[in-house]
Design goal:
alpha+beta; Ubiquitin-like (UB roll); DNA polymerase, domain 1; 2 domains; five-stranded mixed beta sheet; 31% helix; 16% strand; globular
Length: 173
């Protein structure tokens, strides 16, 4: 039996009033109801990170998140990062550093990297930086790997992905 609820979401700057089944994930809402297919369905178990979006500025695995639980939230997907024809700095860095191969994980990697840098700048610790007292903590390769561990790339483009993220981090501090 289907139970619909009314929710409002602002997705990529556009307000949406929707009636959704209470079992609908945010990922399925984006892809199947709103046809925003940039966010990928990888494992559908929250293990690969391909479905990462920004929810109220924080990175979220949309395959594990029920849409109905986010009434009045703001969602940014890969489609919403480009402004007035200009790529987001993270998107541009991925292009410049060739941070993709097949590209399937790229939207989730980019959204996660943006959210991760916000966390890093706010001084959120990682397992690597738990003992450090710097603010923001130094983003060294081990720390970056730890912070991005939930986003998998089956093509192993990690060196280029990491170079792109470090480049953005360096230019945004």
């Amino acid at each position: 039996m289907q139970h619909d609820v009314d929710i409002r979401l602002t997705i990529n700057g556009t307000s949406h009033h929707l009636a959704v089944d209470t079992r609908t994930t945010l990922l399925d809402l984006l892809r199947e109801h709103l046809h925003l297919t940039g966010t990928k369905k990888g494992c559908d178990h929250g293990q690969c990170g391909a479905c990462t979006v920004l929810l109220d500025g924080k990175r979220v695995l949309s395959c594990l998140s029920l849409a109905a639980s986010h009434d009045d939230a703001q969602v940014i997907t890969i489609e919403g990062l480009c402004k007035e024809g200009h790529l987001h700095p993270m998107q541009q860095a991925f292009v410049e550093h060739d941070g993709f191969q097949c590209g399937y994980c790229t939207p989730g990697q980019i959204c996660s990297a943006i959210g991760m840098l916000r966390e890093w700048k706010a001084g959120f610790p990682s397992m690597v930086t738990m003992e450090r007292r710097e603010h923001p903590p130094h983003l060294d390769p081990a720390d970056l790997r730890e912070r991005m561990a939930g986003n998998l790339c089956r093509c192993s483009a990690y060196p280029n992905i990491h170079a792109a993220i470090i480049d953005v981090a360096r230019h945004s501090t």
